[in-house]
C-alpha cells in the first residue's frame, strides 16, 4: 500500500508559559486553516515541552513544518516543528499488573479499539506498560 503521508506534526521546545490558544493561532496563521472548523487539533504535552498538531485533511504537513520553522514568531519562542514518523508500534500505559498478553492482543484487535492485527506484545511490568506492534500502520492511528 506504500507509505502514507503523516498528518501529525510535533512542535518541540514549547515552554510551560506557552498556552494552547497561542499555538492554535500560530498554526492557523501559518497554515490558513481553522481549528474551529475542525481542520486540525492541538494536544499539549508539557512533560516533554511539546505539542502535537493533528491535521484532519490532506494538509501538506512537510510544507507546514518548513513554514513554521521559518516563521519569526516561532523562532522568537524557539519552537520547532517536524513531521511525526508513522510507526507500527504503540506504548500502552496503566496496564494492571499480571494482565495476560493474550488479553492485550484481543483488546487491541477489537474493532472498538482499532481493530488491527497485533503481531507482538512486549510487556513492561515494572512500568505497568506494554509495547504493542501491529501488522500495519492503520491500527495505531
TrEMBL record:
Q: Where are the transmembrane segments?
A: none
Annotated PARP14 second RRM domain ranges read 6-85
Q: Which InterPro entries match?
A: Nucleotide-bd_a/b_plait_sf, RRM_PARP14_2
Q: What is this protein called?
A: PAR14 polymerase
The record lists the organism as: Balaeniceps rex (Shoebill)
Starting at the broadest rank, the lineage of the source organism is: Eukaryota, Metazoa, Chordata, Craniata, Vertebrata
- Please name the gene that encodes this protein: Parp14_0
Amino acid at each position: 500500500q506504500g507509505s502514507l503521508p503523516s498528518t501529525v506534526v510535533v512542535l518541540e521546545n514549547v515552554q510551560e508559559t506557552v498556552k494552547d490558544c497561542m499555538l492554535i493561532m500560530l498554526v492557523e496563521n501559518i497554515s490558513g486553516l481553522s481549528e474551529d472548523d475542525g481542520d486540525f487539533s492541538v494536544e499539549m504535552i508539557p512533560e516533554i515541552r511539546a505539542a502535537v498538531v493533528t491535521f484532519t485533511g490532506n494538509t501538506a504537513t512537510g510544507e507546514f513544518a518548513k513554514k513554521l520553522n521559518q516563521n519569526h514568531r516561532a523562532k522568537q519562542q524557539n519552537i520547532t516543528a517536524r513531521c511525526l514518523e508513522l510507526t507500527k508500534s504503540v506504548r500502552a500505559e496503566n496496564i494492571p499488573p499480571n494482565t495476560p498478553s493474550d488479553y492485550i492482543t484481543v483488546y487491541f484487535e477489537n474493532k472498538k479499539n482499532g481493530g488491527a492485527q497485533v503481531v507482538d506484545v512486549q510487556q513492561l511490568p515494572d512500568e505497568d506498560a506494554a509495547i504493542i506492534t501491529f501488522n500495519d500502520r492503520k491500527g495505531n492511528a
